[in-house]
Amino acid sequence: MKISSILTLTALSTFAAHAHAQASYTGEGSFTAGYTTGNTETTNVGIGLKLAREGSKWRQSGEFKADYGENEGDENKNRIFTAAQLDRKFESPRWSAYGRTTYEQDKFSGFDNRAFVGGGLGYIALDGDKTTWTLEGGPGWKFDEIAQRTNNGEVIPAFREDSFAFRAGSTFNYRFNENVSLTNDTNAVYAEASTQFKNGLSLTANLFNDISARLSFDVRYDTDPPSGKTEKTDTATRISFVYAFSNH
């Protein structure tokens, strides 16, 4: 069974666990336009979906993103990212344990696909009316399928590289007022073969009812990019329209 199939089943299981007809959830859907720099320079469009369900002891969350871009009619951006996480709260309200899986497919990154499966501990460092800050970290396993190309651009079958890894994550949120908030998400996955780092900074402003506008800037850094990829750093600047929903 391919890694992608395993991760898809894992994500579905995450949301199925402890689910019932009256389960409360929150979520958001987004439509995005943006510009990327680094190994590819392109304008692109994208869609996104986030879902979360929180109970007294368990929290399930998931995320899906897709981006597509062309330059003079030639495709140069085609990326899909999914993530699913299950959190178990402890008696102490600040501590939790989690299991997490992510899958990314981006043929213009030099990787056919990348995946991570792991777990660890979470800690709420700040929990104020305006400011929240959550830290996570723990071991896992990283799977990279690396595309190979000859000097004339011919694609040959990819090879897979598996390695023990350690993930660290940070989510910081500051609410200026009831309509405007700032969020900074940081994720780093360390492994002997390579380390991936991602930081996303976003400013969200409510326009009316459940509709918001969001301006974001993402930086992705790879310590050892695949052969043929000369840039270690890629950036993405995006503007999004976001629809928030819940069944509270």
Straight-line distance between termini: 38 Å
CATH topology: Porin
Helix and strand sequence: HEEEEEEEEEEEE
Roughly how many Å is the radius of gyration?
19 Å
Tell me the CATH superfamily: monomeric porin ompg
Count of the separate structural domains: 1
Strand order of the largest sheet: 1-2-3-4-5-6-7-8-9-10-11-12
Largest sheet: 12 strands, antiparallel, barrel
Number of strands: 12
Strand content: over 45%
The amount of helix comes to under 10%
Structural class: mainly beta
The CATH architecture can be given as Beta Barrel
Mean pLDDT: 84
**Molecular shape:** globular
Question: How does this structure look, described?
Answer:
The protein has 248 residues and is mainly beta. It has a single domain (3-17, 55-61, 85-246), classed as Porin, CATH 2.40.160.40. The chain has 1 helix and 12 strands. The protein has one helix spanning 3-16, and strands spanning 26-37, 42-54, 58-71, 74-89, 95-106, 111-127, 131-149, 155-175, 180-191, 196-208, 211-222, 233-246. The protein has a 12-stranded antiparallel β-barrel. It is globular, with a radius of gyration of 19 Å.
Task: List its salient traits.
248 residues, mainly beta, Porin, 12-stranded antiparallel β-barrel
Q: What is this structure's SSE topology?
A:
Elements: H1 3-16, E1 26-37, E2 42-54, E3 58-71, E4 74-89, E5 95-106, E6 111-127, E7 131-149, E8 155-175, E9 180-191, E10 196-208, E11 211-222, E12 233-246
Antiparallel strand pairs: 1-2, 1-12, 2-3, 3-4, 4-5, 5-6, 6-7, 7-8, 8-9, 9-10, 10-11, 11-12
